[in-house]
């Protein structure tokens, strides 16, 4: 699978929105840093803090990726790729840290015939029908 996973840029247009709850004092401290010009806005502060933590934990992340045999980056699965897997008699065990996109041309039947398991630490972009079909195979 690794030859088909494209490395993702650390910064880019594709992103996933998350929501966090902060205490008023922490939020006020962030606003103070923004006001003083250390960060352009709250989002800039939060992204910077997250990236800093990820850099500090990079060795642990790398060991976990290796231990769990995960691919890192973007994996796009379209009907041509899944048809080739079906023709070869392969059942894909997908394990990705990043983004998995299952194309709109993939039918639920084809997905069920070719995707044995799906582990995505990050984001899965697929139609509701595909997600429903694979629900029992998504970890």
Automatic annotation (TrEMBL):
PANTHER family given in the database record: BLL4998 PROTEIN
Membrane-traversing stretches: none
GO biological process entries: regulation of DNA-templated transcription
Entry-linked SUPFAM superfamilies: Ribbon-helix-helix (SSF47598)
Name this polypeptide is given: CopG family transcriptional regulator
């Amino acid at each position: 699978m690794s030859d088909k996973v494209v490395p993702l840029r650390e910064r880019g247009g594709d992103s996933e929105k998350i929501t966090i709850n902060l205490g008023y004092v922490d939020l006020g401290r962030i606003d103070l840093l923004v006001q003083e010009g250390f960060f352009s806005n709250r989002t800039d502060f939060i992204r910077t803090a997250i990236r800093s933590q990820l850099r500090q934990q990079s060795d642990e992340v790398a060991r976990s990726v290796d231990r769990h045999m995960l691919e890192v980056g973007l994996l796009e699965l379209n009907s041509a790729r899944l048809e080739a897997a079906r023709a070869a008699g392969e059942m894909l065990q997908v394990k990705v840290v990043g983004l998995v996109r299952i194309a709109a041309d993939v039918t639920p039947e084809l997905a069920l015939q070719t995707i044995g398991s799906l582990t995505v630490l990050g984001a899965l972009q697929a139609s509701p029908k595909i997600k429903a079909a694979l629900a029992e195979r998504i970890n």
